[in-house]
Amino acid sequence: MSGPNGDLSMPAEAGAEGEDDGFGEAEYAAINSMLDQINSCLDHLEEKNDHLHARLQELLESNRQTRLEFQQQLGEAPSDASP
């Protein structure tokens, strides 16, 4: 059996029993806190991205309408009325 890094000389279970992994409760709490902050930032970025996407869709539709109106004023047939 190989170890966690593919080491053939060390079984995967050898390092797990009876040895401290070097992290205490405080370290895990700090990591959890940092992960919560990262998650919160990512949620905020996702909301901003969704808002920008919606605004860009509105702008695109507005530009399409303006172009169609302009073409109609010039007496031309619209080249691509459907998206």
From TrEMBL:
Residues 1-25 are annotated as: Disordered. One of its GO terms (cellular component) is kinetochore microtubule. One of its GO terms (biological process) is gene expression. It comes from the Eukaryota. One of its GO terms (molecular function) is molecular adaptor activity. This is Bublin coiled coil protein. The gene is BBLN.
